[in-house]
Fold this sequence. Notes:
This protein is α+β, with helices and mostly antiparallel strands and 149 residues long. The chain has one domain (5-145): NADH Oxidase (3-Layer(aba) Sandwich), CATH 3.40.109.10. It has helices at 5-26, 29-35, 46-49, 74-91, 105-110, 142-145, and strands at 52-59, 61-64, 67-70, 95-96, 117-126. The strands form two sheets. A three-stranded antiparallel beta sheet has the order 1-5-4. Strands 2-3 form a two-stranded antiparallel sheet. The chain is globular, with a radius of gyration of 18 Å. The termini are far apart. 12% of the residues are buried. The structure holds flavin mononucleotide (FMN). Flavin mononucleotide binds at residues 40, 97-101, 137.
Amino acid sequence: xxxxxxxxxxxxxxxxxxxxxxxxxxxxxxxxxxxxxxxxxxxxxxxxxxxxxxxxxxxxxxxxxxxxxxxxxxxxxxxxxxxxxxxxxxxxxxxxxxxxxxxxxxxxxxxxxxxxxxxxxxxxxxxxxxxxxxxxxxxxxxxxxxxxx
Length: 149
Ligand SMILES: Cc1cc2nc3c(=O)[nH]c(=O)nc-3n(C[C@H](O)[C@H](O)[C@H](O)COP(=O)(O)O)c2cc1C
């Protein structure tokens, strides 16, 4: 969890550098068109404005001396744990953004994490600004996703 303003500034700078390449070169037209309604671009001021940046790493394998210990169901476990975290933060009245400024390797470098840990999600968290607007994104209906047999 990062609250230090200078470290948040470095994370913003590195994320914006990746996102700028994404928006200007790497994202295909189709992806840009899908993002258009949200008005997002490579600027990520929330990475400094949010009081806390929660950086979730997945630990792909354990390390015991020179030995690598296999970890099972890493994506499933980290995904479930992160979902509970997001739900708990929301229940506490906090706002979050699930952010994936891809590629996220810069987080390992800036936070000095070992090779067996890989950045999974970057979650800016804090109380919502008084003037913030939440997009009303339609969700699929239950009957569109639930198959009962
Ligand atoms: C795994 C995942 C990664 C995401 N990464 C980004 C991101 O990097 N930048 C962004 O603007 N939105 C990203 N989003 C979308 C938003 O965080 C959020 O899901 C969207 O605004 C819909 O919010 P809602 O599900 O609360 O309605 C991501 C969503 C998910 C599920």
